[in-house]
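Sample entry (322 residues):
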Amino acid sequence: MNLRNKIKAIAVTVLMSMSATSMSAQDLLARQAPVDRKMKTVDTLALRDLLIKELAQSPSADLYEDWNNQYAHRATALPDSFTIQLSNFCMPTPSRVVTSNFGARWGRMHKGLDIKVYIGDTIRSAFNGKVRIVRYEPAGYGKYIVIRHNNGLETIYGHLSKQLVTENQEVRAGDVIGLGGNTGRSTGSHLHFETRLCGVALNPAVFFDFRNQDVTGDYYVFTKRTYDRDAREATRMRGKVGNGGYTPDMVRGTSSPNTDTAAREAEKSMRSSSAKQYHKVAKGETLYSIARKRGTTVEALCKLNRIGKNKNVRPGQMLRYS
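Predicted structure, serialized as tokens:
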């Protein structure tokens, strides 16, 4: 009898213990539920912030619906306005010589800039991005490369002698992607360079200043309403000038004891042909230092730009000096 009572007492104790444990577990779960909901909210916010940051770094993801390796370009609807970041860039070539402008040429539209390079010269990616096309088109671009960049632009590099990247390869600004050439529909060695937004060709001179080996600013705001005017102004300021007067050193972007003399002679030749010349103001420059650098006077600069002698110039400002 005593044994039976003891067994009963033990059983009751175990049941109470299990019940207590179950209740404690339930209480713990009940307390944990709000925490889980809060963590879920935090995770969602963190994911949203991450997506926003990625989109800011790569707005092209929001511009293009697909990734197609078949077509060099296929025009889609342009946004009314779009900001294109130009920082973290690399000039595709050190050549400063523009041999053909963007626009109407020989009865058809020339949708890029032709830059003088020699066969075998290094060609680099202009911005970070991903190679979309590496192909050969005998009646057109020749050996060419198309890169979709994180800033929304696509760049095309045509008439190459050699392609050094593969489709779907990630590239950084400045990575070597090919060598200059004369393949395809070409009358001499040069780089045919295009910049496109949503497949629509935009004047590369809007973004790149090959003569000064620089971009036109930290960013460019594409606006449908003003783009045509911007493109014409870009050609006037940064397109082909005169009939040349350039030297191999200026094409290759190299330095030699004669480079400065050759550059001055080229500028003198262009000034004598009444071509308008512009200077992009660098940080720390003044009207006096610009006049001395360009072989002119402060008075002449002020007259050409209709400004006073005490005018403070700002970095990035374009000043006419001839």
